[in-house]
Amino acid sequence: MPTEDTILKQSLIAILLVSALGIVFGIGSGSYAILFDGVFSLVDAAMTVLSLYVARLITRSTVTNDLPEHLDRRFSMGFWHLEPMVLTLNATILLSVTVYAIFSAVMSLLSGGRTMDFGPAIAYAAAVFAICAGMALYEYRANRRIRSDFIKLDLQGWIMAGAIALSLLVAFAIGYMLDGSAYTWLLPYIDPAVLLLVGLALAPLPIRTLRSAMAEVLLITPDDLMQKVERVADEIVSEEGFTGHRAFVARVGRCTQIELYFIVATDQPPRRLEEWDALRDRIGASVGGDPRQRWLTIAFTTDPNRAS
Predict the structure, then answer these.
(1) CB-based contacts of 304: which residues, under 8 Å, 6+ apart?
(2) How far apart are CA 132 and CA 155, in angstroms?
(3) Is the pLDDT of residue 182 over 90?
(4) Given this model, what pLDDT does residue 101 score?
(5) 238 neighbors 262 (Cβ within 8 angstroms)
(6) 142 bridge partner residues
(7) Is the dihedral of CA 58, 160, 131, 30 positive or negative?
(8) 8-state DSSP, 268
(9) Whole-angstrom Cα distance, residue 230 to residue 295?
């Protein structure tokens, strides 16, 4: 049975194939909509390669612990911060390409459209739809066993790409049937109209990714994570008789970064270090999450200024 890594590699090969078809058929048919689809897929493939590389670095540093010594020394705080940076770059490039396509389509519509050959365009749309449908079905069946979030996300991408290919196929088929009819004057507007619709349909995807990734790059505190950490800290303060606490949290890629400072009263009896460590373990278990994907710092002090 195929593994997660094997399926993602096969998906990448299929994306490159779709991209090559889009560029070749886009130039051959004179369709900017097809050319845009190919370029969009090419950029997405390049970013997928970079994302897979970063994901492997994170896995090697947190799960298998087999990083080369020079990388382990230079990135002593891990590679989690690279994930939102790659997503930001990916979303920015894809959004730029999409916005350019939308403006290009509008300018073409205002200037009278452009002529194209619908025969090769129909062949391209049919071939890409078949590839997308095949990959979506393949990944759906495989992920019922693997249950991978990466494959689930990739599956959604293939479904979206298949829907766009089907839209292109329908639009170009309509254009092919209109050729030589009383509506021949509409033919130059079909390609820019399709390009505009595809651009508008794809634009929300990189925008959502960009918003989420920038929030992580800027270390904006997630409300749900802060509420959970505050709830755990309040319980510990109440149980242990501390005077207060301060919490600092952020989510960076798949990592949660948490710093907890507990204010201890000066008149509390001293404890052995083993007791403080046991309390730290209890707090960590209450906070939850995968310890390999969590940066948790817990400190105790009698000075509130040291917790600010």
Answers:
(1) 244, 263
(2) 9
(3) no
(4) 87
(5) no
(6) none
(7) negative
(8) S
(9) 16
Residue 300 dihedral angles phi and psi, to the nearest 5°: -125, 135
Q: What CA–CA distance (Å, rounded) separates 67 from 62?
A: 9
Of 17, 24, 7, which is closest to residue 41 (Cα–Cα)? 17
How many C-alpha atoms does 28 have within 13 Å on its Cβ side? 14
From 7, 12, 98, select the one nearest 51 (Cα to Cα).
12
Structure token digits, residue 292: 């390999």
Among 44, 36, 35, residue whose Cα is nearest residue 15: 44
* 262 close to 245: Cβ distance less than 8 angstroms: yes
pTM reported for the whole predicted model: 0.77
Mean pLDDT of 94-102: 87
- Residue-wise pLDDT for 40-82, tens only, equals 888 878 877 887 788 788 878 887 788 888 887 888 888 888 8
Pairing of strands 255-263, 294-301: parallel
Whole-number CA gyration radius for the chain: 26
Q: Which strand ranges, in their side-by-side order, compose the sheet holding 244-252?
A: 244-252, 255-263, 294-301
What is the DSSP secondary structure assignment for residue 246, as one 8-state letter? E
Residue 110, Cα to own-chain centre: how many angstroms? 35
Torsion of CA 281, 283, 287, 288, to 10 degrees: 20
Task: Say whether pLDDT at 230 is over 90.
Answer: yes
Give the rounded distance of the alpha carbon of 185 from its chain centre. Answer: 42
Residue 300 has pLDDT above 90, yes or no: yes
Place of tokens 């492997």: 56
Q: Which domains, from first to last, does the chain contain?
A: 4-217 (1.20.1510.10), 223-307 (3.30.70.1350)
Task: Give bridge partners of residue 256 from the DSSP assignment.
Answer: 251, 294
How many C-alpha atoms does 165 have within 13 Å on its Cβ side?
A: 25
Encoding tokens for residue 19? 């991209």
Q: What 8-state DSSP symbol labels residue 30? A: T
- The Cα 282–Cα 285 span in angstroms is 5
Terminal CA-to-CA distance of the chain, rounded, Å? 53
